[in-house]
Amino acid sequence: MVPLISVIIPAWNESRLLASTLEAVSKAHASAEFSFDMQLIVVDDGSRDGTGDVACAWADVVLRFPVNSGKGAAMFAGWQAASGEIVVFLDADLGSTAEKFPLLLEPVLRGEADLTVAKLPPASIPGGFGLVRGLAGRGVRLLSGYDSGAPLSGQRAMRSEVLRRCERKYQGFGAEVGMMVDAVRLGFRIVELEVPFRHRETGRTWQGWLHRGKQLCEVGLTLWQCWRKPAC
Question: What is the dihedral of CA 189, 184, 151, 5, to 10 degrees?
Fold first, then answer.
């Protein structure tokens, strides 16, 4: 029986790169070395640049938020609309490198993992000083005992049972960290693998610092919530 894969892409003001990301996902589905049916879902998180209109040309389902509600809320809404037995989350700014997403599916389809997480190549320009990644990695290790090499990665695939069991509605940019902590504590198997995805890079710009500052706060809040109410 051919599995149904739900690919969920949260997007906020990503009209410039979203079309190439969605095109790459569609091409990867058509040319994959193994067969699967695909449901492509885009969650337009209150964009003001036509992101939702771009998505309509490619996606099976487009959800539109009237205001920006954060990545965690967009991921949750996408998951609620998903029908697949396996769910894939991808960021909207991967562009043509999104064609590599089937690599995340293989360990799950082979029964070797319940959740796979992509480890991306190093950035080509200097970014932050590792504060967010350091907090995320230490938090995951302290709360679950798992030593993650990519705790912040938004590129991941999982059996839908993982999301059903985790239950928690994660906050903003802390969604991936919270999901990892809960998945480990619930006994799910995680495999991290290198996948040559590429993001848009903000570098050490004012915009980049604002993004990382918000990310730091939301990761910290999510870790506190996971400590206060552990998954069981």
Answer: 50
Q: The sheet that has 37-45: what strands, in order across it?
A: 61-65, 37-45, 4-11, 86-89, 156-159, 115-119, 190-194
Instruction: Single out the residue of 119, 122, 105, 107 nearest to residue 25, CA to CA.
Output: 105
Task: Count Cβ atoms below 10 Å from residue 223 Cβ, excluding itself.
Answer: 21
Residue 65 · residue 11 · CB < 8 Å: no
Distance in angstroms (rounded) separating the CA atoms of residues 203 and 209 = 8
CB neighbours of residue 30 within 10 Å: 8
Higher-scoring residue by pLDDT: 230, 210: 230
Nearest in space to 215 (alpha carbons), one of 139, 112, 107, 144: 139
The H-or-E segment that residue 141 falls in is helix 131-144
The burial of 10, by beta-carbon neighbours within 10 Å (0-12 exposed, 13-18 middle, 19 or more buried), is given as buried
Q: Yes or no: say if 217 and 136 are a contact pair by the CB < 8 Å rule.
A: no
**Residue 151 φ/ψ, nearest 5 degrees:** -65, -20
**pTM to 2 decimal places:** 0.92
Q: What is the pLDDT of residue 145?
A: 96
Model pLDDT for residues 137-179, shown as the tens digit of each residue: 999 999 999 999 999 999 999 999 999 999 788 888 899 999 9
Task: Quickly count helices (H) and strands (E) in the chain.
Answer: 8, 7
Helix (H) or strand (E) holding 135: helix 131-144
| pLDDT at residue 130 in the model | 77
Give yes or no for residue 227 having a pLDDT over 90.
yes
